[in-house]
Amino acid sequence: MVAADSYAIMSPPDSPPATQHWEGRAPEIKEYMAGKSGRLAPRWIHDLLHSELDVGSFVRIEWDLDAGCSRHTLVPVGNQSTADTANPGVLSCVCTTCNYHFIIRTAWDADRRVNLCEPFPHHFPPKETDFYLHHLVSVKQPPQHHDFTSHYHPSIRESLIAVEHFACSAPRCTFQVTAEISRPRLKREWVQLLIDQERILSNLKTARKESPERFADAKDEWCSSAPSTLNTYLRDLLDPKTLPRNISKRNKRFHVVFGEECYAIFRAVQFTEESIGKDGVPEPYFIPPTLEPSNPGTPTELNTLRAFVEDMQAEAESLITRNGGNETRTEAGTRIYKLLQCLDFPRNQNAHQASDAHRILGVLPDFNKALIFYAYKRQSSLSEQRRSVYAEALCKIAQETPDEDFQTQAVQELTMVGTLPTADHHGAGDDLQQQAYSFFSLQHTASRDAVISAYDKKVEHSPSQADLAKNMLQMIGRHRSDEIIFNHASGPMFLPMDLAAAYRSLDCDPEWPDEHVRMLCEVKINKNPEDKIAAEQTVKALEVIAEDRESSDLREAVFALRGGLQLPAEGAHEGSHTNSSGQPATARLDIPAGLKNIGNTCYLNSILQYLRTVTPLTNLLTQYPLHQLGQDAQDIEDRLLGGNKTKVTKEEAAIGRILVEELNNLLSDLDNTQKAYIQPSQRLANAVLLGTAQIKESSNAANNKQNEEHKDEGQKQQVTGAQPATLPPPPLPARPAPVPPKNVEHVEDTNMVNVTVDPVSGSASSVSSQTLVSMPDAGQEKDHDVEDKSDMEPILEQDDMAAPNPSKDKDVQMPDAESQALSTDEIVRKALETQKRSSGTDQQDVTEVMGNIITRLQASIRRTSTSADGVQLEPIMETLFVESVEHKKMPNQEGFNTQSACEFYIWAYPAASGPCTIHEGLSRNFDLQRAEGNGGDVWMYTSIKKLPPVLHIVIQRTQQNGEKNMNPVEVSEMLYLDRYMDTPEDSPLFKRRQKGWGLQKRLRELDGIPKTPDEDLTALDKFTSDFVCNGNSSPSEGESTPSLLAQPPSSSLSFAGEDIDIPTYTPESEPSYVKVDLPPVAAPETRQRVNQMRAEEVEIHKAELEALFSEHKQQAYRLHAVICHSGGLSAGHYWVWIHDFERDVWHKYNDEKVTVCESTDTVLETLNSNGDPYYLCYVQDEKKLDLVRVPQRHASQDIDGDVVLPDAPGALNDQWNG
After folding, report:
1. Distance CA 665, CA 984 (A)
2. What is the DSSP code (8-state) at residue 973?
3. Region Disordered: which residues (predicted)?
4. Residues 6+ apart with CB under 8 A from 836
5. What does each C-alpha distance from 302 to 75, 152, 299 come to in angstroms?
6. In terms of Cα–Cα distance, which of 864, 878, 858 is closest to 656?
7. What is the DSSP string of 1114-1127?
8. How far are the Cα atoms of 252, 615, 663, 832, 876 from residue 620, in angstroms, in the given order?
């Protein structure tokens, strides 16, 4: 039978007999759930704890943002919960961070327990009769459901802010959940009083002044005791074994710690106030209330004062913990999972990062494929019209796994959804409609794009038939019920759309939250990314909804989608009925403006925002006439770039001058705009992102166009448009990546400086099509030497630019008189204005683009001086370029050869597994390494000869297997680089560096030893076969006691002709060992001891390594900016964090959106939690305010000339999104 209360769901009168995982086809859905979506129980718990349970009243909860609670940590409250398996069940909790209260109630029909969902056994794909976990859907309160909240104690009931009910969607499962959330019982102002130590110290000072003798023994430590004292009062009040004690208001501690300002707390608990005579003198007291009796084994009823006191006492304990107390409390996480019957379920051991696809299906990344497929089935059964959305999400999750079976099943589902008849399914039509298709030479099965394209061509080639074509097009539109086709001739994308049509277009409901609407819009666009017409209609629908809701998030999504898809802005078309620009309704003028993404330019936007803050570069731009390179042929001939002294062509100099002009315009717009963001010019993007050869090719094609038009049609040369961007490869590391070269022939002294010659290629380079720099193999170094680059062609001078390759079977085209009269600047400018980029594929690496900007700018400025080795210096070289020295010792060679290089960045390498510090990453670039080659070993290490004021560090995330290394590199706010500086080999600093190499080598050896017998018993026995730990043994006379693990191989490496001894580091205290005969496999306790010793030695060496350079802090650099990259090697997204030192805040520039975070610790915690940081920018600490500055917008003026200042908030709050 069902429990006496009416909370449980009752069986319907026609319920079939109960069976375990019933046989036969189950009822499809419960009628009252049709059209809804849900989530599996673990996802429901996740969303509850992360405040993402976006249904009903939960959406309107105004959380206490000051509490900083990103995830609720729940602990049980008092005696208010039932046993985990009780029916009905109750779990009453409080969040230890924000003090909000959560009550979760569950119930089911006890007569149908066997119909409850169960996670095991599971199959893939799930059977029709398998129901693994509860799929919880929001429902209205059933009529017979008892309203518990109406009987709550008044103090609890008035704190209640949200109550929602959920039920499992499985056809015969009767499981139901109710979640209640209420505000803290301790008001915010009370909490401030309790933790205000200055207030308590002030009370104590006043008391000592008024009654010095009485308060002589009062202690200053009382200032931090208010939470614990209140907790003691409440705990005594709840204890049934003790009688509640009266509280004298004159009690010294009570008077000081609480005082009159805290009386409201005790009155809220219903303490009464009386005067009681003491020695004939009346004294004011707080008299405790009489609480309801506590019944062992029975939860406290929430309609009692006892429940309210339990709530307050739980909050007091949280307050103690948050203020440094050592209260031990058990979290309620496991109990919640038990309550929702999902403690154990099949998990995926290789969980992927959470995505929108997981949210759409209501699953978590650690679900195994059977559960994910089951969730897809449940979602689709409830909402058939959104099945395609769910199938897309299923495919997206499956594609992130290596499971081919999962991927096949997901694709089959998507294919099956695509073949289902839809509401606008159409046949061949009648005779008249068939004539309409024939008019355009189409079949009735033609796609929408084909129909519209055929119409456009018909009108273009036969203008006299435009009216007839329009009628035929509208006839096809009516036949298909396709508004886009029907309205195309009248400008369908720009006609007004009402709100109902917008929701219909997106297949969403008006009550859906913004995030879901935006997500569905992106899914519809990604389903057919080539259909620009459908994409425009979809974005317009999102815009209509955004305006109706006045949602800034949706408006920003509209603007981002238009930029990413290169769609025209609404209001830019003739006949448009709206002036919406997609900009947020209001722009904060106290933060910098963003930059619009104009087609896969997030990497460029991030760089531009960063370079805008580098003062020497902005000074160079604003004072460009003082630095401009002369345009005479001799000036250009004499200009040499970088450490490899690359020559400059006049085309490159012209591109650089135009880039300077565009950058100045951009900086001015950013300084003066009153909008949230501005749009960079396409000419700026082209000047940076297109290769010189491509720009020249475009200018040649434009100059030859007139001659080609006069040729015979059969011999006419077709101009096919722009080739994909082919940019020079990114600058390489100063030596090979830390992997052994394949043979010694490739390990030789080479010029490692970046080559800036543009390769001429007919297809996109492999570098340009990736979003991260690829790591070169050691054997690939010479491929980047100009002389050895077989696929390079010389860049022609302007006089020869129009002459095609004589080897091609085409007539030589000579420029006409008009084109010969054009200057180089005019030709280049024209090419930059007309050239097109393929925004869908040409996403480039941020290091590559940074190199392009630097090279372009260098090509347009003159040198200021020349170094002793002939390197031309100017402000960019002096600001950004680091001079490094590679030391290399070849086989059978005495001493080291050196080779200098100048780069605008240095490399850091993540660990192969797990996180590492920034110094560990840099050590993989600079430390001593050995490479095996023919004839012996090659030794090499790198040092820094000269550091620039602004230092760039690139984290090389491209692995040898072509995948991205996502292991975190822990970025530090301060970075001391003394250890990497080039010093004499006999200097103390170099000796410390040698010692560090030895420690690093030993740590690598220790890291290679298996930690458990499961990893490699054979290798482990190698280290234990000769020794057994014996604490009472001692070595034989004359024998030493070496470390069990400290046996690094000797090295013959020499510096300046002297042998180097890489020291052996032995722990100060060693156990003794005696040689014995071991059994075939080491005993488990022996292996455990070895693991323990290894761990201890690792800690010792790490501590010694950390202390080695702790006093060397002359080369101090502070973190200024971090460019981040999410995604894989072939696609992804960039954004940048920049520290405003003057205001001590961080700005996150994410294309159009700029947000603020005040806490450096929070930013570093975010950066160090994943593998997103990619390009680090440090500045000399002592000169940071002179080197970098985040410009502020210029204040606007009204018509009377008064300065109009933006409405600045009280503080830069936590706008940032992660």
Report:
1. 48
2. S
3. 1-22, 698-744, 757-824, 1028-1071
4. 721, 722
5. 17, 5, 9
6. 858
7. SSEEEEEEEEEEEE
8. 69, 8, 11, 23, 9
Alpha carbon distances (Å) from 599 to 137, 561, 604, 772: 39, 10, 10, 18
Closest CA to 30 of 164, 178, 138: 138
How many separate helices (H) and strands (E) can be counted in the chain? 38, 36
Residue 1094: count of CB within 10 angstroms of its CB: 19
In the block, tokens 């975070």 appear at 1157
- Average pLDDT of every residue of the chain: 74
Q: At residue 284, what are phi and psi to the nearest 5 degrees?
A: -75, 135
Banded pLDDT at 622 (limits 50, 70, 90): very high
Going from the C-alpha of 1207 to that of each of 589, 670, 1204, the distances in angstroms are 8, 19, 9
Determine the average pLDDT of the residues in 361-379. 90
Three-state secondary structure string covering 370-415: HHHHHHHHHHHHHCHHHHHHHHHHHHHHHHCCCCHHHHHHHHHHHH
- Is there a contact between 1179 and 951 (Cβ–Cβ < 8 Å)? yes
Which of these ranges, 420-434, 648-662, 947-961, 1056-1070, has the smallest mean pLDDT? 1056-1070
**Residue percentage of the chain with pLDDT more than 70:** 70
Phi/psi of residue 104, each to 5°? Answer: -115, 125
Residue 792: CB partners within 8 Å, gap ≥ 6? 757, 759, 760, 786
Phi, psi of 990 (to 5 degrees): -70, -35
Tokens 């020295």 map to which residue?
Answer: 885
> How many other CB atoms are there within 10 angstroms of residue 525's CB atom?
20
Lowest mean pLDDT among 17-31, 300-314, 509-523, 534-548: 17-31
Q: What is the 3-state secondary structure (H, E, C) of 41-101?
A: HHHHHHHHHCCCCCCHHHHHCCCCHHHCCCCCCEEECCCCCCCCCCCCEEEEEEECCCCCE
Euclidean distance between CA atoms 458 and 450, whole angstroms: 12
Residue 725 has which token pair? 């961007």
* Helices 387-399/514-527 angle, 10° precision: 80
Tell me the C-alpha distance between 484 and 482, whole Å.
6
Contact present, 661 and 829 (Cβ < 8 Å): no
Q: Report d(CA 488, CA 26) in Å as an integer.
A: 46
What does DSSP assign to residue 767? T
177 pLDDT tier (thresholds 50, 70, 90): very high
Ordered DSSP codes for 1090-1151: HHHHHHHHHHHHHHHHHHHTTT--SSEEEEEEEEEEEE-SSSEEEEEEEEETTTTEEEEEET
CA nearest to 1193, candidates 1205, 1182, 1181: 1205
Residue given tokens 């059209």 in the structure block: 35
**Which has the closest alpha carbon to 82: 293, 335, 369, 283?**
335
Domain 881-981+1115-1187, what fold? Cathepsin B; Chain A (3.90.70)
Residues of the chain with CATH 3.90.70.10: 881-981+1115-1187
Find the mean pLDDT for residues 685-708.
67
Q: From start to end of 834-982, where are the E strands? A: 865-866, 872-873, 882-889, 897-903, 906-908, 916-917, 929-933, 936-946, 950-955, 969-970, 974-976
Structure-token pair, residue 900: 């200098």
367 DSSP 8-state letter: B
The pLDDT, as a whole number, for residue 670 is 92
What is the pTM (predicted TM-score) of this model?
A: 0.47
Task: Evaluate if residue 1045 carries a pLDDT over 70.
Answer: no
* Tokens representing residue 155 in the block: 């103090």
Q: Which two tokens stand for residue 564?
A: 């990413």
For the chain, the straight-line distance linking the first and the last C-alpha, in angstroms and rounded, comes to 50
Beta bridge partners of 958: 964
Q: What is the pLDDT of residue 1017?
A: 45
Alpha carbon of 1027 to those of 441, 842, 869, 1065: distances in Å? 88, 61, 59, 19
* Alpha helix segments (H runs only) across 184-277: 188-195, 197-210, 226-238, 252-257, 263-268
